[in-house]
């Protein structure tokens, strides 16, 4: 789906997602919803007016105050369970953009700002590295002339679609976080550093310090 069509029908999409989330959804569905959220959130500041605030606006138009439980019970815990580096990388970018660009998290969800920062730091303990071209998927070629080919189960890895990296230009995500946060802090007149001082525990402040230094 193109970005234009996504924007045109996004309200309907969010309505359908929240409707299904109320019906005992599977972990797989929660993962897909979380990836969609992060993809929208990570586009903050880009053409099309996307970002966390864009998603929040549509969610709150469905039901007031629905975003808080959605974020706390779906987005944060599901992201923490992401195994694929390409998904974790998307989460890092999304969380960073939320901390630096979201007006809602800056003003309304002040505790959520701190929760987001803590979850970002958890992802950065082992910064995701995504191989160029296939995300974190490794394609193992199978030679049909090999004596073992076809014996037992032969995974069709060569037919599998590679995981998509929506931000291939960001190769070292931890370095990107530091650069983005410093630039955003300067752009917003030191507001990010102010939030760090007011909203984080001493341990979290120490962990985040290298990214703002």
Automatic annotation (TrEMBL):
A Pfam entry, by short name: CAS_CSE1
Top-level taxon of the source organism: Eukaryota
Domain Exportin-2 C-terminal: 4-211
InterPro entries linked to this entry: ARM-like, ARM-type_fold, XPO2_C
Name of the protein in its database record: Exportin-2 C-terminal domain-containing protein
């Amino acid at each position: 789906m193109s970005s234009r069509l996504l924007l045109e029908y996004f309200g309907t999409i969010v309505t359908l997602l929240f409707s299904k989330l109320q019906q005992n959804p599977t972990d797989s569905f929660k993962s897909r919803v979380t990836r969609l959220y992060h993809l929208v959130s990570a586009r903050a500041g880009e053409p099309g007016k996307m970002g966390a605030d864009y998603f929040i606006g549509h969610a709150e138009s469905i039901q007031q105050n629905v975003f808080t439980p959605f974020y706390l019970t779906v987005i944060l815990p599901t992201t923490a369970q992401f195994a694929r580096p390409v998904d974790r990388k998307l989460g890092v970018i999304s969380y960073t953009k939320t901390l630096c660009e979201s007006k809602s998290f800056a003003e309304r969800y002040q505790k959520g700002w701190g929760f987001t920062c803590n979850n970002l730091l958890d992802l950065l303990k082992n910064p995701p590295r995504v191989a160029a071209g296939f995300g974190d998927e490794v394609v193992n070629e199978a030679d049909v002339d090999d004596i073992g080919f076809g014996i037992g189960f032969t995974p069709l890895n060569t037919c599998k679609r590679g995981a998509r990296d929506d931000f291939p230009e960001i190769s070292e995500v931890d370095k990107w976080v530091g650069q983005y946060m410093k630039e955003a802090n300067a752009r917003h007149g030191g507001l990010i550093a102010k939030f760090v001082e007011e909203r984080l525990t001493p341990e979290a402040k120490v962990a985040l310090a290298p990214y703002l230094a």
